[in-house]
Amino acid sequence: MKIKNWGITCLSAVILIVQSCNNPKSSNQKETSSNISVSATDSRGKTITLPHEAKRIVVLYNALVDDVYMLQAGEKIVGIPQQIYEMEDTYHFLSRLDDRIKNKSIATPTFGGQSSNAESIVGLKPDLVLTFNTDEDNINQIENLGIPVFTFSSLNDEKILDELKNVGKLLGKQKRAEEITGYVSEEVKKMRTSHEASPKKIYYAWSKGRIMSTSGKGSLIDMAITLSGAQNACPVPVEAPNISAETLYKWNPDLIILWNSKLSDVYSLKELTALPAVKNKQVFVMSPSFPYDPHTVKFMLFAKQLRHWCMPSYTQEQLDQDVKKAFEIIYGKKGLI
Question: Which stretches make up the Fe/B12 periplasmic-binding domain (predicted)?
Fold first, then answer.
């Protein structure tokens, strides 16, 4: 009987060993699943494939840093533009999401401005770099060093939403990206069904006092103006035309909107003193600019701010409520604004 029992025990042990080999522990299965390759298509139409979700990323433009925090993937960032620390409203907000921003401890692999230092980027050992597709020289240099680059275009609302969903795949935040883009898409639909019969004309002036530089038909700003229910005063199908004061009088906008400029940049121009929008004090500054960055899904809030200035029926109270709700959803956290 003892020999028989011993044999049964040995057989049972062998079976258990075989089963353990064929059925690894759940923790091992979980570890394996986290290393599954991920792919996404960027603004160039290029498919970026990583052996696993990105764990260390360098971001070369401010708006894209914002995107990463919306996706709640800020802990993956190892490099950002120097401007994040220099732009007061951006720095103040992102400091509330990440102590490393607050302490200015995240590396800034830049020479200054938008120029990046490839050597510094390599030293940060990223497995992914995020940038705009206009940054061709840097993109080529970084990719030639064997570092994957995902590019954005932010050409219009559809591209902004699509690019956020795609980068969400690479960061392991696909579900989060779907939550954000789903909400924004619904808000955009609502806005497009509630336009004024006689839309006001808006002239948009570029930042840093470049009053005679604007955004034409088909541009990102043109999309946001149209979404607001207004009309772009610039009828030219050019991305960034420079115009004369005479042309601005000809277009005769109802409102002038400034971005990172001062009211005095307009009111001090003698050649514009007789322009109706100037005489009627219909010049507005989008300030602080961070909540309304049109290069992100906040193009929706940019449009809502324009709507408030154009349509008295859309009150400041309603705008404030909409901005508060939007921030809770796109950042996934209450009390940020």
Answer: 56-314
Domains in the chain: ranges and CATH = 40-190 (3.40.50.1980), 198-331 (3.40.50.1980)
pLDDT of residue 240 exceeding 60: yes
Q: Work out the angle at residue 90's Cα, subtended by the Cα atoms of residues 88 and 92, and round it to the nearest 5 degrees.
A: 65
**DSSP calls for 35-78:** T--EEEE-TTSPEEEESSS-SSEEE-SHHHHHHHHHTT-GGGEE
**pLDDT average, residue stretch 302-324:** 96
What mean pLDDT, rounded, does the chain reach? 89
- Residue 332: CA count within 13 A, CB half-sphere: 17
What does DSSP assign to residue 171?
A: T
The answer to whether 227 and 299 are in contact (CB under 8 A) is: yes
DSSP 270: G
Alpha helix segments (H runs only) across the chain: 2-22, 26-33, 62-70, 83-86, 88-95, 99-102, 118-123, 136-144, 157-170, 174-192, 220-228, 245-251, 264-267, 276-279, 299-310, 316-331
> What pLDDT, on the 0 to 100 scale, is given for residue 113?
52
Cα 211–212–214 angle (5° rounding)?
Answer: 90
Chain segment 16-63, per-residue pLDDT in tens: 333 444 343 333 333 334 579 999 999 999 999 999 999 999 999 999
Q: What is the pLDDT of residues 203-216, one digit of tens each?
A: 999 998 999 999 99
Q: Quote the tokens at residue 328.
A: 């809770």
Q: Which amino acid is at 195?
A: H
Sign of the C-alpha dihedral, residues 209, 215, 221, 224?
positive
Confidence of residue 117 (pLDDT cuts 50, 70, 90): confident
